[in-house]
Amino acid sequence: MAILPILRWPDARLSTRASAVEGITPGIHRLAQEMLETMYAAPGRGLAAPQVGVLQRLFVMDVTWKTGTPDPMVCINPEILWRSAVVATGDEGCLSIPGPITRIARAQAIQMAWTGLDGLRVERRLSGFAAICAQHEYDHLDGIVTLDRLAPAERAQALSQFDAVAA
Ligand code: NI
After folding, report:
1. What is the CATH number of the domain that holds 80?
2. Catalytic residue among 34, 37, 79, 137
3. pTM here?
């Protein structure tokens, strides 16, 4: 297993729509494990495959490990089936855009379906930080980053805090 290099904005791969995962191969198992390791080491609570240069629809997240019990999730070919009309604005960082914490309005709850590493399709309702994190990671699969969801003045402010140089 290896820690993978995380692409930094404005790498073009972060603005590219990813393709569906065609099968749960040993390569996908390995990628998911390495993405989890990379996410924990970063440290972060979510990481999408395009952030490590793989343009496939897969992300990992664990919204509880920093405060309690680890709950690693591997979401392959996720679909957001429903978004609540109620919107919540939360603080979001991105491992590909180190520095700024952005405030983005997103659905407070979502219903999401995805395939796990066991090949089974599952569906779950996510709310609170899990819903925000899943929507953030899902955006990465469509080539959308936090900066793309900000008004021009907020985007300029975020860019002024962006550490473009690798740490
Ligand atoms: Ni991100």
Report:
1. 3.90.45.10
2. 137
3. 0.95
